[in-house]
Amino acid sequence: MKPLVSIITPMYNNEDVISETIISVLNQTYISWEMLLIDDASSDQTINTVKEIIDTDSRIKLFEHSKNKGAAEARNLGTKMAKGNYIAFLDADDLWKESKLELQVNQLINDVTDVSFGSYEWIDLESKPLNKKVDILEQLTYSKLLKANYIGNLTGVYNCEKLGKIYTKDLKKRQDWLLWLEALKRSKKPAIGITETIAYYRISKDSLSSNKTSLIKHNFNVYRKGLGFSFIKSSIYLLKFLYEHLFVKSSLIKAIS
Q: What pLDDT was estimated at residue 66?
């Protein structure tokens, strides 16, 4: 029997994009999965849109917050309800390539790693390619991840059987970074990256990728509030992050000809 992958997707007012996101999961070549949609009290037609699709596939399950609690709480509820051997994340506006899960499950089954991630491409709000991709480091240790977030959350999968369920702290942004840090902290192996692009990340005005000032503030909060570092230690790591982001991570963003 093939391992089950639990896919956790928080939603909030995503009526324009959620159908395409779900379809990208339905199109996966690996079929042993469950998709947990967590609606964070949407005020648009997200719920109605999702319900129409749920009726077509029993692997898709809907959970609803009665009031808005934020992405961290939504992901944590999904984690609590997950039944899979592996846990993956896919935001409501991002997309997967068809072979995404199959490639990663093969890695995890072969015990190469407890955490798998991969390269991804950028698309705009209308799903048109922006002709850029984010390459990955083929191996990623905890100490390296502590300097900058190298795991695109839409590509990450971890072995829940070995590492246990991982819940994230309720920071406004970058909770995913904390989650992957905890995963690598629990694992005795580095994360292994898939070099080919396996997903599409949607760039919007609210994306951290397009707001460098917010990026600095939220990264400091990861060290200070998320990891509990002292102010001085957090400041030192923020300087390490800035160096890593400017001179290492930024070099992984490549133009697609």
A: 83
